[in-house]
Write a structure and sequence with these properties.
Length: 358
């Protein structure tokens, strides 16, 4: 009888341990399998081209034929793991000190970013302010210089976390001591960034832009335990081109690269815009895209643009070592951008050569 009871207890412990491994250890191992990339890259979007101020502060206020731009992005990543990553951003930027006769202008912008992940609701909130100066160099090129300053807050809810010392053999017992050093729930810091863009537009069929920047130049400290955990600088590079292939078709290849503390992100691909009707600002187009995040995901994109509004949806198909464990489920992402005018005659202004549909 004692042996039978002991077998039942042993079996129950094994089942509980299996559930613990499946629900707690496996997700952590899967995250580690992605290397440092996912942990160090911070806030990021597959639709980086719809998050211009995150990509490079020199993009602030850089928009052909428009006075202002507003946009939102939302990303839900790894929905098949217990607690997915969720990222949201909203931004607005505009041109200033610009007239129809003046070819140089300032750009100002603000943005908010929120990133949340994990059982402990590990969150990052950032409020960003950007300023940029755009200098037209002749009739076919432009140099843009941008600066950014941001306030960041990292937070975690320790009450929603469990630790190995709270495992009693059957389940996690929150009443048991966790054996961990007490930490603060929030940590705040400031960030400084800078960027450059050079754009070349020889005619109305070709536009090429090359940029580079550095985020977290001041290398702020981030720690819940008062430790000297200094964030490294994050260099970035971006290339964007548009080629008009006829009256109803344009190609928009681009790439984005960032690196920090030996981790990196490299995304490249192209959008294809197909004209379907209308003229000027009222021109409408379908957008198709295919991108690749190096060693991590293949990204399919679809969108529609009309009346200054662009709405896009994309999906990341995992191709990394995580694929067998999350059924290749990656990330679902939405992006909405609206561009418009607030100055008289702005809709008729043509700042420089740029591929357009009519």
């Amino acid at each position: 009888m004692k042996k039978s009871i002991q077998n039942i207890i042993t079996s129950a412990r094994l089942q509980s341990t299996f559930r613990f491994a499946k629900q707690r250890i496996l997700p952590a191992v899967l995250c580690l399998m992605l290397g440092q990339n996912a942990m160090a890259q911070g806030i990021h979007f597959s639709q980086y081209y719809n998050a211009p101020m995150l990509t490079n502060p020199a993009n602030t206020g850089l928009m052909p034929d428009n006075d202002f731009r507003v946009g939102v992005n939302y990303r839900n990543q790894w929905s098949s793991v217990p607690v997915p990553y969720k990222t949201f951003s909203a931004y607005a930027d505009f041109q200033a000190l610009h007239t129809d006769q003046l070819s140089n202008w300032l750009g100002f912008g603000v943005a908010f970013f929120n990133d949340k992940a994990g059982d402990g609701n590990l969150s990052l909130n950032r409020v960003v302010g950007n300023v940029a100066y755009h200098l037209q160099m002749g009739n076919s090129s432009m140099l843009s210089m941008g600066l950014s300053g941001s306030y960041a807050q990292r937070s975690v809810d320790f009450t929603k976390l469990t630790f190995d010392m709270q495992w009693d053999g059957f389940a996690f017992n929150g009443s048991l001591p966790n054996g961990e050093q007490a930490g603060v729930a929030k940590t705040n810091y400031m960030e400084v960034g800078a960027g450059l863009n050079y754009a070349y537009f020889p005619n109305d069929n070709v536009y090429i832009k090359i940029g580079a920047g550095v985020d977290q130049i001041n290398q702020p400290k981030e720690s819940f335990y008062g430790q000297n955990n200094q964030l490294g600088m994050r260099p970035t590079a971006n290339v964007d081109a548009t080629f008009k292939m006829g009256n109803s078709f344009m190609l928009n290849p681009s790439m984005y690269f960032s690196t920090q503390s030996k981790a990196y992100e490299f995304v490249y691909g192209t959008l294809a815009d197909v004209y379907i009707g209308g003229e000027g600002k009222d021109a409408s187009q379908l957008i198709f895209g295919l991108f690749n995040r190096w060693n991590e995901a293949v990204i399919g994109t679809f969108g529609y643009e009309w009346g200054g509004m662009r709405a896009m949806v994309s999906y990341d198909f995992t191709i990394s070592k995580l694929a067998p464990y999350n059924q290749s489920n990656g990330a679902l992402e939405f992006g909405i951008v609206y561009k418009g005018h607030y100055t008289s005659g702005g809709s008729a202004r043509k700042l420089y050569n740029c591929p357009r549909f009519f």
